Amino acid sequence: MTEAPVAPLLYLLTFSHRSKEEAEKPPLLSPAVIMKSLVLVALGLLLVVERNVGVRQAFNISREYDLLEPSSCHFIEGIETGAEDVDILPKGLAFMSAGLKYPGGPNFKPNEHGNMLLLDLNEENPKPVVLGISSGFDIDSFNPHGISVYIDDKGDSVYIFVVNHPTNTTRVDLFKFQAEEKSLLYLKTIEHELFLSLNDIAAVGPESFYATNNKPFLSTLDGVDGIYPNIPVGNIIYYSPEEVKEVAAGINVSNGIIMSRDNKYVYAASLLGKSISVFEKLDNWSLSPVRELQIDQLLDNLCLDPTTGDVWMACHTDAERLFHYDPKNPPGSEVLRLQNILSENPVLTQVYVNNGSSLQASSVACVYDGRLIVGSVFHKAIDCDLHNTATEN
């Protein structure tokens, strides 16, 4: 048998446990050893290929789609750093979280803190107003993400729950809306060890809520290369001053969460699962799974039409373009409408699709009185008149 040089990978696989005396001798490769090493290398390459294929499928990489844009859509003046989440009061006042700095993601004004915006949808061309926040709150580190509004039983107090990520932490800040001053009264900060990486929130009381943890195993957004699409890492937490508990688990990157019109059900979006899970809310605030609807798109936040009960969702067309931002090839936007979610035959309709040439990285889509408001993670926001059904392809 002749001696032969050993490739580095084969050497590591085959000879990493040789004795000191053996290590001083040039390794001899028998046919059996070579075959074993090649099999191990092949298995390793197969795993890499399989993961890459899984990532491409899970992230809709290079997905093909047709553009669909209502001709009535226009940018909302004054929104330049996104409106990651939106919640609308019954009389048309829309709250928006703006300026989210997500680790690893783009931000067009990195030296400015985030803000809460107010948009009056009763106006024909509303302009957002920055809501002032009372003393005692650290506005300089404000990094707002998901939001939810709760109106008390008397209807005269409006509470705003905001997921906040100051300095790479995650918490919920609670405010009370002061309508005359157009400002927020800071009430308290809520933190808990189960708040691992909060994304969205659904208020169910003046101090209680459901919230989604979207990626508990990561402290930063590592992009496509740092996410394993087949590992369901997300969950849902219930919080009240009396009790905090996990109420759902095994969600593949849990994202948006809302309540049904009758408050009997919870709808939660899975980004990489590309689905909406329906849960029944039990008397003890636990959640019982009812069904999972496969949507096959990368879902972000959810909004409920208070009149019809339809679920509106914003989606990302290609997650690689979202996580690996390139201004020359920006992430696209998509809006879907889901009707009759609790029926045997729900109806899913595509309402808006753009390749990033107009709106980048849509994150939320909400309706009010025939108008569609679409926000984004870090870009702009658009206002569409749904009464005008003409579209541009």
From TrEMBL:
Residues bearing glycans = 355
Q: Name one Pfam family in it.
A: Arylesterase
Q: List the disulfide bonds.
A: 73-384
Disulfide bond as a keyword of this entry, yes or no, is yes
Catalysis: reaction(s): a phenyl acetate + H2O = a phenol + acetate + H(+)
MF terms (GO), sorted A to Z: arylesterase activity; metal ion binding
What name does this protein carry?
Paraoxonase
**Upper taxonomic classification of the species?**
Eukaryota, Metazoa, Chordata, Craniata, Vertebrata
